[in-house]
Backbone:
């Protein structure tokens, strides 16, 4: 986090955490959460706490049809390989 503070002195900086304990909120003494928030007192610093399970769930929902098609193709390929053995 100290690197993000230092970088934000001269550059727009995004501090990202995947720690399920949401320790960035505690350290910054402000609620951060699963959306980008401005860090109070730091003009160029934003922060987000990514919930890995929620992000994976959302990604799966968004790509559900592609994953289903890929799964079908993979199954067909494996069956063909096994038939040749």
Residues:
């Amino acid at each position: 986090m100290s690197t993000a503070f230092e970088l934000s002195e001269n550059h727009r900086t995004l501090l990202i955490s995947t720690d399920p304990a949401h320790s960035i909120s505690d350290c910054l003494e402000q609620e951060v959460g699963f959306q980008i928030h401005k860090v109070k007192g730091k003009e160029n610093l934003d922060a987000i706490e990514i919930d890995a399970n929620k992000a994976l769930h959302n990604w799966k929902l968004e790509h559900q049809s592609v994953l289903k098609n890929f799964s079908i193709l993979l199954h067909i390929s494996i069956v063909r390989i096994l038939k040749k053995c």
Observations:
- The CA atoms of residues 1 and 15 lie 7 Å apart.
